[in-house]
Amino acid sequence: MEIERTTVPGTGVLHLCCPRSGIELGVLADNSGRRQLFVYDGDDHDVPLRVIVLDPDEADQLAEMLHCRCRGGHASA
Fold first, then answer.
1. Alpha helical stretches, state H, 1-77
2. pLDDT digits 0-9 by tens, 14-65
3. What top-level branch of life does the organism fall under (predicted)?
4. Which of 19, 41, 57, 67 is deepest in the core (most CB within 10 A)?
């Protein structure tokens, strides 16, 4: 999967990718440490269909979940 990185002056870095599912995703890593996740509609690449704002600790937890190869059991919050 290719990842396109673009500097957004005064804001941070925008990472865009399109996984095999075909749904374009974006992550804005802003200068305050927050992360904004963007889900784009296939027809409109300028306006996200959904935006999810994560504080730094939430972004870390999500990254850990995505990286984990855990099987079964219960997750703790």
1. 56-67
2. 999 999 988 899 999 999 999 999 999 877 778 899 999 999 999 999 999 9
3. Bacteria
4. 41
Phi/psi at 27 (5° precision): -130, 120
Q: How many CA atoms lie within 13 A of 13 on its CB side?
A: 5
> What pTM value is reported for the model?
0.79
**3-state helix, strand and coil shares in percent for the chain, rounded to the nearest 5:** 15, 40, 45
Q: Which two tokens stand for residue 65?
A: 């979940």
Q: Identify the helix (H) or strand (E) that includes residue 42.
A: none
